């Protein structure tokens, strides 16, 4: 295996994918810090409002070599920025920083990463993909002006898939279809482990809208909340021509939730981040509009309804992780 | 992500899995070489008779820092051993060598890795799993005597799954069930890409025996050779109570191939390395005896026969790789 820039960047990309979709409205970003050839940190951005990937990685790198340092106790992005700027003492001058997205150049909920990098002056910053967010861009120029060597475009195509949800929800609507199934595509009964269910509920807590089919609501009577993580229940759009539902089912009883019953799919475009939970009929109806298919695969074989057996579609696997003992596969339509 | 011994060992384990089953009768082994914290090489054993993982990794590490060195031209295990022993000049004294299996201590088709390590004296050798092959074992003791620090048992459980086929075929029979399917478990028609088909033919070239069901032979009339890689066609056992077959089909016309027609599955135990190609009925009959299920998954959805839909079985995912744009998933029955 070749140990080169791509190798270090791929580690950053894979780390970022662990938090894909969970960073909304921010992009998923990963960062690897290498000091004189030694990997000191591989970290990612975890959640909007929390520290960016670069900040997490620079902190972890510094602590790796200074294990009992006060920095350990600093958790907010501001504190870490301040501490590193004051105390770096040249630590990063022989470091290379691999980051999947151009460091932000704008002060939002957290201070600008480009500014932090300018102050601590790593030897080189390797960037996979330019920022597409005009407000936050300009990081490259800013680092260049500070005399830091920049390499742009390392694994750009792979990083583009990582960035894709962000690109979509920045400028319009990102829609993903989520389904749990067994190895052989069965969706009957309880499929997922608790860990995978918790991920689904975490996703529900993040999204702007969940779309579900009317028949599923009628037959399964799901609650569609985020109780496993004590999170926010998403607003729900029930896709149905027939507008009559039993209003006593739990779905309608969740406080602070909006439920729309509609067969107008253009309504989805009023939202930025939409999750579709359903079977093949909904997937077939929406297929031109779905950005990602997210399959949660439990490693078991079961009899029963095969949710995907009535469509004919090719995909590209753009990423996959394990969630405990199960799999998550991210697909894009070909 | 924690950057520790486990991190470097996992890189070696993942590299080794790329050659899982292809190293028969040798074990699949991987090796990472780290010099002063810098990863110089991640390599694996590719094929019996060729250089072991340690030798490939030590060579790659040396060349990484001496790019125009003569060692580049040395390909046989003997040549690399000789060259490194004569010319290492202390290069490895500050290296840590992570290897998934105890370095062999015995001179077979290739010289002993333990001897090479003793001569070049790395700072530390980290070993995931002890060798279970008495003939080749003793590597640890040998390195210890030479004053090299040994760490044994790093990621031992994960390395055990890597080693499992070797453990089985050393002492008896290793049987794996191979099947190509779509994302939703359909096996109708042509599923796999050419790259995946080439892997199947490479496996056929390695195995001692292929088991196939009589009905498949009657209906599909497969040749079951290794023509995509111009390899050796495996011997075949057709599992069938009815011994009558049309002898004019291609399967029976392959030169230098033995074909057994039998319904006595105990015959499998006369072989060390058996691949089963078939559908659920054969899987169900053999299930107690199958060591690995190897699924080749093409990222598409298709209508049609779901090969796995009539059994009820839980698995553990022990590894997965990409083969080009498709997936290979290694499963063990729970």
From TrEMBL, chains A, B:
EC number(s) stated in the UniProt entry for this protein: 1.1.1.193, 3.5.4.26
Pathway terms, separated by semicolons: Cofactor biosynthesis; riboflavin biosynthesis; 5-amino-6-(D-ribitylamino)uracil from GTP: step 2/4; Cofactor biosynthesis; riboflavin biosynthesis; 5-amino-6-(D-ribitylamino)uracil from GTP: step 3/4
GO biological process: riboflavin biosynthetic process
Domain of life: Bacteria
GO MF: 5-amino-6-(5-phosphoribosylamino)uracil reductase activity; diaminohydroxyphosphoribosylaminopyrimidine deaminase activity
PROSITE patterns for the chain: CYT_DCMP_DEAMINASES_2
Keywords (A to Z) from UniProt: Multifunctional enzyme
Entry-linked Pfam families: dCMP_cyt_deam_1 (PF00383), RibD_C (PF01872)
Function description: Converts 2,5-diamino-6-(ribosylamino)-4(3h)-pyrimidinone 5'-phosphate into 5-amino-6-(ribosylamino)-2,4(1h,3h)-pyrimidinedione 5'-phosphate.
Family: In the N-terminal section; belongs to the cytidine and deoxycytidylate deaminase family. In the C-terminal section; belongs to the HTP reductase family.
Protein name (record): Riboflavin biosynthesis protein RibD
